[in-house]
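Revision sheet: structure tokens.
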Amino acid sequence: MRIFNLLLLAALAALTLACGYSSKTYAPTAGSMPAISQLNPDSVTAGSAAFTMTVNGSNFAAKSVVNWNGAPQTSGTTYVGAGQLMLSVPASLIANPGTVQITVTNPAISGTGMYGSGGTLAETSPAMSFTIN
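Predicted:
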């Protein structure tokens, strides 16, 4: 009788595990793509003092980051709203003449749990040129 009960318990456990009561994972989906429409100012003179750049556009997330030639400026980016970010540009970044590519990255968002979404991917805007004369 004991062996029968043990076999019955093992069969029930195997049946329960085979019924699909396992966690499902979902792949992340595309996030919101930011877009830059204007940089203000759009140029400076090499060797100038530090300044604040206004980045206007659309679809900026609360934790968006402005990238300077691909390097994220996490400590210098301030979120103003879905259409505007501010970037504190130190003098060291504008010491030499050249063209800089400015982009905005919306961060990835983690999934919401065992049966929730898979979250979203990070998305980076097309580049806009900034000139250092």
